[in-house]
Amino acid sequence: MIEDKKQLSRLWIWLGAVVVLIIVFFAARSLMRDRLPVRAVQVGREELVNTVSSNGRVEPEVNYEFHSPVATSVKAVYVQPGDTVPAGKLLLALNDVEAQARVASAESGVKTAQAAVEAATHNGTQQERQAAAGDMTRATLERDQARRDLEALTKLKASGAASQSEVSSARQRLDTAEANLHASELGVHSRYSGAEVARAQAMLTEAEANLAAARQVLTQLSIRAPIAGTIYSRNAGPTEFADEGKLLMQMADLRHERVRAYFDEPEIGRLAVGQKTLINWDAKPLHFWHGHIVRTPITVITYGTRTVGEVLIQIDDVDADLLPDTNVTVKVTTSREENALNVPREALHSENGKSYVYKIVNDELVRTPVTIGTINLIQVAILSGLKEGDTVAIGTANGQPLQEGVPIKVVR
User: Do residue 242 and residue 326 come from a single domain?
Assistant: First the structure.
């Protein structure tokens, strides 16, 4: 009996020892378990800027191109690229021998057409009018003579001194004379029809247009500066031959330039008139120019392999260093939020259209829903769900996913 009690007592001692060992094992395991290494950041406030960048080309606001109006040679060039010239200065002269000959020929054509109009509206030339007047005088005299002859023969017939056939013949001569007189009167007063007058006037109009065109070409052969500006391109030298339409020279007021930028189609909706821009040219990487959008795209075009919209950007601080036709980079500020509560974009997660972050509370991850605002490439504004000073996880150091409730240790 006593022996049984001793054995039972030893059994309970062994069971107690086993339980103690189990408790110690799990406690030690809990204390020794590896914590998830997490990179974290503290929620703070700062300015949140959203931008979009693209390429563009500098161009004058108003560009003046001078082309050769005809195929001819260059007589003289009076300026060099980079020259600043006043309005009205002679820039370039082209050979004008043929143009002067065309003007002379056109002037002769105008005079001929003027003479034709004068003749049509005054019933012929002066010589024709004099001849017509003489014909009418002669026809009048013949008619009067025929009338007198008829009257005399009619009286003689009544006395039996003339026959009826003589009277009839005299009457026929009078009818012929009156017809000739009528034709002469028409020649004096209505020599040309209305259609003939209109045709003469049309020919004069055409001749005057030809003269104006010839004079305009002659004027264009002496190229003068339409404004005060800078010569920034010259494509012809003295004695060189210039085909009709060849671009000879370009000038502009380089104090007024703009950028024609090309933004990809998905970015067009973020652009608006008035947005500020920063312009950079690779040739001067440390120099930046400022501007603002003055026109957003009205359509999309194919630009190389891209589908883009053209945006016009006014340069606000243009200087002589930024040359026309240069390729530049344009950065547009599409939104700006002052003192915004924000976290890095990599701290933001989304599920079923709802955003959340992992907030660190007592060394554990707590999934926390948030409402977001402006987003840029590296930051996102937090409208609700967090407060300044909270700590959120932005990822793990070992590549494992973040999980709610997992003990963590913050690493840098």
Answer: no
Q: Which of 317, 338, 359 is the last residue of a domain?
A: 338
Task: Look at residue 349 and tell me whether its pLDDT is greater than 80.
Answer: yes
Specify the pLDDT at position 143: 77
User: Could you please report the per-residue DSSP string of 288-302?
Assistant: EEEEEEEE--SS-EE
How sure is the predictor about 29, in pLDDT bands with cuts at 50, 70 and 90?
A: very low
| Bridge partner residues of 90 (DSSP) | 224
- How sure is the predictor about 181, in pLDDT bands with cuts at 50, 70 and 90? low
The confidence band for 211, taking pLDDT boundaries of 50, 70 and 90, is: very high
Q: What is the pTM of this model?
A: 0.58
What is the pLDDT averaged over residues 74-88? 93
* Domain count for the chain: 4
User: Which long-range contacts link 381-387 to residues 24+ away (Cβ below 8 Å)?
Assistant: 381/48, 381/337, 381/340, 381/341, 381/342, 382/43, 382/341, 382/342, 382/343, 383/341, 385/356, 385/357, 386/43, 386/341, 386/343, 386/357, 386/359, 387/43, 387/341
Could you say which of 215, 243, 277 is where a domain stops? 215
HEC-encoded secondary structure of 337-348: EEEEEEEEHHHC
| Model confidence pLDDT, tens digit, residues 314-323 | 999 988 788 8
The string of DSSP letters for 87-129 reads: TT-EEEEE--HHHHHHHHHHHHHHHHHHHHHHHHHTTS-HHHH
Asked if 371 and 383 count as a contact pair (C-beta separation under 8 A), the reply is: yes
Tell me which residue range forms the domain holding 329. Answer: 52-61+255-338
Asked whether residue 3 is domain-assigned, the answer is no
- The rounded distance, in Å, linking the Cα atoms of 156 and 399 is 148
Q: Where residue 307 sits, what CATH number does that domain have?
A: 2.40.30.170
Could you tell me how far CA 338 lies from the centroid of its own chain? 36
